[in-house]
Amino acid sequence: MQEKLAAASVHAPALSTYSHTATGYPGLVLGYAALPPDRLRAAVERIASAC
Predict the structure, then answer these.
(1) 17-26 in b/e burial notation, b at 16+ Cβ within 10 A?
(2) 3-state helix/strand/coil string of the chain
(3) Residue 46 near residue 9, CB atoms below 8 Å
(4) Buried b (16+ CB within 10 A) or exposed e, 37-49
(5) In terms of Cα–Cα distance, which of 6, 26, 8, 10 is closest to 18?
(6) What does the pLDDT profile of the chain (51 residues) look like in tens digits?
(7) What pLDDT is stored for residue 27 in this prediction?
(8) CB atoms within 10 A of CB 8
(9) How far apart are CA 20 and CA 16, in angstroms?
(10) Cβ atoms < 10 Å from Cβ of 12
(11) Is the pTM of this model over 0.85?
(12) Which residues contact 15 (CB under 8 A, 6 or more apart)?
């Protein structure tokens, strides 16, 4: 999924890159605290269309 989102210009690194274990954890890291509502809506639409 990380690759699909990167192709859509969405930076969402895999959660497993932050893990020290061999297996890691499934998921993506999404930062949204600094986005105004209009940009957040656009980002959600971009993520949904990439999936």
Answers:
(1) eeeeeeeeee
(2) CHHHHHHCCCCCCEHHHHCCCCCCCCCECCCCCCCCHHHHHHHHHHHHHHC
(3) yes
(4) eeeeeebeeebee
(5) 26
(6) 888 888 888 888 988 888 777 676 788 888 888 889 998 899 889 889 988
(7) 87
(8) 14
(9) 8
(10) 19
(11) no
(12) 24, 25, 26, 27, 28, 29
CA distance to 6, 32, 36, 38, 39, per residue, from 14 (Å): 11, 16, 24, 25, 22
pLDDT for res 36 = 93
* Amino acid present at 26: P
Could you identify the residue written with the tokens 């509502």? Answer: 37
Size (the chain), residues? 51
Q: Residue 14 forms beta bridges with which residues? A: 28
